[in-house]
Amino acid sequence: MKKLKQYQYERYAILCQMAYPGSYFSYPETLEAFNEKLLMDKFERIGVRVLWREHKKEVIVVFRGSISWGDWLGNFCFLPVKENKQRGRIHWGFKRLLSQPMYSSHKSLAQALPLQELLLLILAPLEQAGKRFTFIGHSSGGVMACLFANTFESMYPNKVKRVVTFGQPAFASLGYKRRYQLHNKTYRICCDLDIVTFMPLVPYLFIHVGKMLWLHDDQIYENTPTYARFLRSMKSWLLRPFTYHYMKKYIRNKTLFDKH
């Protein structure tokens, strides 16, 4: 498995942040170099952003996470259902997201198609132009990135460069995990005690795919078991009041005092 480099992590994290309403103005320069195609939902919100450069081979597809009560209610509908006849079962609430109607920003809601169908139509010309694809997303957007990337890999072998998700909940049965084709290209980023990464809170109902990178106590841990991550996070949380007594907490950026 190739390593995820720092500059790639930072760029993907910013792009995921910019998928949410009101975030664009925080990093306007990030998108300046890209060609862009936006996919809108029925509420005229950006749901997916497709980014590419003419002189680069990488296409970045960014899936937005949940932003409304309706989105979150769907996330809690964790009934296991078949994705198709060949693969194992997945979380129904996330499967439905790839079926939601969306339309390109230069079209209208009347021209909407199921997200997966529309996205395949948009990416096909880029694939024919020799591009490779990175799929990223935060929260439920991370699940969509995994599900769509696996389908795309089946249709266009070796065209997926990587899958990177942030704060992604579990969505796969053991059967689906066994048939997931991108374990060596999938990076699942978890941050400390992010409760969503443990959801749904029913042990072993769903599991994760790919390689986990856990950001905790200023370190990166790889593939830490869920129970160990939970216990270590709780220990850190319980001891936190005492850690503020450590001398390293008093050694801060000197510019804080330059103002006084």
From TrEMBL:
Gene3D superfamilies: alpha/beta hydrolase. Residues 60-201 form the Fungal lipase-type domain. Signal peptide: none annotated. Pfam families: Lipase_3. This is Lipase. The lineage of its organism: Bacteria, Pseudomonadati, Pseudomonadota, Gammaproteobacteria, Alteromonadales.
